[in-house]
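INTERNAL AUDIT FORM
Audit reference: QA-55
Scope: verify that the stored structure record matches its stored sequence.
Auditor: D.O.
Record contents follow.
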Amino acid sequence: MSTRLHPRSLACSMALALAGFSATAAAAPQMQASVDMGAANASQSAHVTLVLKLRNRDALAQYIRDTVTPGSPHFQQFLSTRQFASQYGASATDIARVQAWLRQQGLASTVMANHLAIRTTGTLRQFETAFRTSIHDYASRSGGRSFRRPVAQPAFPADIANLIATTTGLDTQRTFQSHRIRTLPLSGQHTVLPMLRTAKTGNPTATGIPGSYTVGDVADFYHINPLYQHGITGKGSTVAIVTLSNFDPADATAYWNDIGLTTKPNRITQVHVDGGGAIDGGSGETALDVEQAGGLAPDANIVVYDAPNAGNGFIDAFAQAVSDNTADSISTSWGGPEIYNFAALNVNGASDTDTTDVGDLVAFDEVLMEAAAQGQSVFAASGDSGAYDTVRGLGFGGGPGQFNAPLTVDSPASDPYITAAGGTTVPYSFSVTGGPTATIAKESVWGWDYLETYLDANEPTDGGWHQYLYSVGGGGGVSVYWHTPFYQAFTQGIRRSQPKQTLVYNDPASGPYTYLKLPAHFRGRNVPDISLNADPQTGYIVVSSSDGGIISEGGTSFVAPQLNGISALLTQSSGHRVGFWNPQVYLLQNVFGYGAWSPFHAVRAGDNWFYEGKPHYTPGAGIGTLDVANLALFLKGGF
């Protein structure tokens, strides 16, 4: 059986081959998870984004490094969007060539200010003609959503093909997951233990109750209160939330008011990208992101970029937030398994045999490099499925349970130019009615196998618990696409990818089929970078009208916006943008380690179903949790 690759796919395949990937050829039609419903309505309109290639990528990478390296002549010399476009975006000549070709195809186009993307509008028939492909509708075999996608990768004329990195928008198949999860309905009392490291300060917004924590408790856990006591509240800074659902801003206002927190009035601005996201099941995600980031930085401005959860929505929302360059820091709590970018496309209903569509990874990376050069700190949730991101990361046409669970990481958190937010469990006690009280005595890597152990011992008949437990925990592991970045090169505890990891599709009719054999011992980017409390059992209250009012949740969805809010405090404290966090925090940890004056605390206990807590970096919790007041002192002094 042979595999036919399109021109762009061939380049991707070569890159993956160098990384050690083995991609299996296309499966028979009966093994598809979706049904080809035939040609899509060619008269319907579509919005497609052409992502252009960076100029001088190596020089850009060095410039980013210089902006966060004390002593460099470019230290803290962040670029404006215009400067970035001039130095690293596509040239005016190249943009003119692409736009001239688009006009010939009858397609309207608009160039983004960063010169990294061209947005186009037209009918599907026009795009089919221009991109030399057909576009079909598909329906999920599991009875879920329907979508459209090209049957072959878009192809471009030779004179512009080398200018285009990827396209997004014609394919509406893939959706992303929000990384929040509800508290497990354990019966019995939860009793909080005294927190380690920091004493209660009397902050009126803190509850001290696991499952009902607020931003005031976060301030207690991670030594943020000294900043508040010195008037550091995020004043003068702006945070952005990139999300795939719209929400009611009144939810955030109600949350802040209900916990007795005074915030800056009229602080929320909404930007609806590509028509905006819907008010739907993900709206609670947007609400909690705004509540957490804006609660920790009560005087910061907030810009919410929401887009549809399909096609080019996620990329476009991120690109807009970065190109606008209004926000000093940005967070997202959405993502999906990194390895699904490499899976054979016919798993999801396409007849094409391209096995290496890494377009999303490439597009995110370019946008994130721009953010770093502009001094924008960016954070992404690492996921809530522990070391096995595919278990709860399904975003394709197939239904749950159709794929196995290799060790995986979440994207875009796995990108080397973003700070990946991991999860812990803070100390607490719990019990089940009739059972003994169990205690998490110190902050631990979050993984619900600790509940599995307890329930196996005290509820031996199971009672259905296991389906809720595996593999819930803080996302973490090793990328099998991105190489180990320079800032992790000398960090103790950095891991390589594990051997014998495969992506298998379990077809109900035909049995298992292996689509990918993942590279073993690959020197990949390790995830996460920083962790904070994320266990729903020690989780937070959220006000979400779309979810019925006040609910209790957890997940790394909370950590990303919390780091966003913390970054806003650090921006005010230091008097300038913090910039790309990772090189700075890894250097601090490598030099100063863990101690009374360190900005970090190692997470030495627990696991995320594979990676255990350690007295150094671990893919369970990164370099550890924060002492924000100490971090502020280091950053303010330029180390």
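Auditor finding: record pair retrieved intact. The CA atoms of residues 387 and 610 lie 6 Å apart.
Action required: none
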